[in-house]
TrEMBL record:
<dbReference type="InterPro" id="IPR050595">
    <property type="entry name" value="Bact_response_regulator"/>
</dbReference>
<dbReference type="Pfam" id="PF00072">
    <property type="entry name" value="Response_reg"/>
</dbReference>
<dbReference type="InterPro" id="IPR001789">
    <property type="entry name" value="Sig_transdc_resp-reg_receiver"/>
</dbReference>
<feature type="domain" description="Response regulatory">
    <location>
        <begin position="8"/>
        <end position="126"/>
    </location>
</feature>
<feature type="modified residue" description="4-aspartylphosphate">
    <location>
        <position position="59"/>
    </location>
</feature>
<protein>
    <recommendedName>
        <fullName>Response regulatory domain-containing protein</fullName>
    </recommendedName>
</protein>
<keyword id="KW-0597">Phosphoprotein</keyword>
<dbReference type="InterPro" id="IPR011006">
    <property type="entry name" value="CheY-like_superfamily"/>
</dbReference>
Amino acid sequence: MLVDRKQTVLYVEDNHLNMALMHHIFKKNLPSVLLLKAETAALGLQIARRTLPDLIILDIGLPDLNGYEAMERLQNDELTRPIPVLAISAFAQRSDIERAQNAGFSGYMTKPFQVKALTEAVEKLLAGID
């Protein structure tokens, strides 16, 4: 699936290794998508409001605000409310996945994630397919 070169994804993650891995995945599998990065939820919220990315990939276990708090702020802002948000977390219990769905996330991936599954999820969300 070809993705419009103008599409942008914001990745909010505090772990440098995960950030480097995501950069590599996008470079190799989604080269036409611009990947923006933020190491804190607060910075991610600022970047999201300023750039209005097509998709946000949000780690749940962030140190300043957890992913649920950040998601609530995204949903309460009329500018960022329409942006789909993909949750990524090491928490893999059914209750964790249900909590994310109830919080309004567009999808949920557990760490470690499969590169193909992540790539497909990003492509679908960027194409507007649930």
